[in-house]
């Protein structure tokens, strides 16, 4: 969850507007707040999940009450369709793709919509797990993501999850870009 916030924000320094698909415990959105962003929009269509995130306020920087955060109790696709705001970074961490209603956020249509909501040079960060997944489905997700975001990286967390970074154009990347962010004082 921390990695989902840190990877794109280290790769896109100076990001001011961030969109997060899914609240969960609020850890990812809270980690975004450790950067000097002006606004974090979180789309979560399940009110009990937002209520539950309050229980993690000690760990998520009290994301539910933070003035830089706007929580939209709607489906992420609806928020992106109805609000023409552009973002420096879009982070998506949906549930499993076989869950009812979730598969559509792994579709070309969703990625096209997300690409239209990125500012020039913006990045999308997509969490995806590979456990309980067959190779054909994994290849389909990677191929679909790459068909919209021709410049992409795949990070293997070695815990059964991958994180995909994508953009419509190349961005500065490599060990030197992430070295400072991963440095421990």
Task: Give a verbal description of the structure.
By secondary structure, the protein is an alpha/beta fold. 33% of the residues lie in helices and 24% in strands. Strands 3-2-1-4-5-7-6 form a 7-stranded mixed β-sheet, with helices on both faces. The radius of gyration is 15 Å and the shape is globular. The two termini are 21 Å apart.
Number of strands: 7
Structural class: alpha/beta
- Residues in helix, %: 25-40%
The number of distinct helices, counting runs of at least 4 residues, comes to 7
What is the rounded Rg? 15 Å
The biggest sheet, with number of strands, parallel, antiparallel or mixed sense and barrel status, is: 7 strands, mixed
Estimate the strand proportion. Answer: 15-25%
| Overall 3D shape | globular
What is the average of the pLDDT values?
A: 91
Flag low-confidence runs.
none
- How far apart, in Å, are the first and last alpha carbons? 21 Å
| Main β-sheet, spatial strand arrangement | 3-2-1-4-5-7-6
Topology:
Elements: H1 2-11, E1 17-21, H2 27-32, E2 39-43, H3 47-53, E3 69-72, H4 76-82, E4 87-92, H5 108-116, E5 118-129, H6 135-148, E6 151-156, E7 161-167, H7 175-182
Parallel strand pairs: 1-2, 1-4, 2-3, 4-5
Antiparallel strand pairs: 5-7, 6-7
Helix pairs in contact: 5-6
């Amino acid at each position: 969850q921390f990695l989902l916030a840190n990877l794109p924000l280290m790769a896109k320094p100076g990001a001011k507007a961030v969109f997060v698909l899914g609240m969960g415990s609020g850890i990812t959105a809270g980690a975004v707040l450790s950067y000097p962003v002006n606004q974090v929009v979180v789309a979560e269509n399940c009110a009990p999940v937002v209520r539950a995130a309050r229980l993690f306020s000690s760990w998520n920087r009290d994301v539910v009450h933070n003035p830089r955060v706007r929580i939209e109790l709607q489906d992420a696709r609806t928020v992106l369709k109805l609000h023409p705001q552009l973002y420096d970074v879009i982070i998506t961490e949906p549930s499993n793709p076989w869950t009812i209603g979730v598969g559509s956020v792994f579709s070309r249509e969703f990625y096209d919509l997300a690409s239209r909501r990125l500012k020039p040079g913006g990045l999308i960060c997509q969490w995806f797990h590979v456990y309980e997944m067959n190779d054909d489905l994994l290849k389909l997700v990677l191929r679909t993501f790459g068909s919209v975001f021709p410049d992409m990286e795949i990070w293997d967390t070695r815990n059964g999850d991958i994180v995909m970074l994508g953009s419509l154009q190349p961005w500065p990347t490599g060990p030197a870009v992430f070295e400072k962010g991963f440095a421990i004082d």
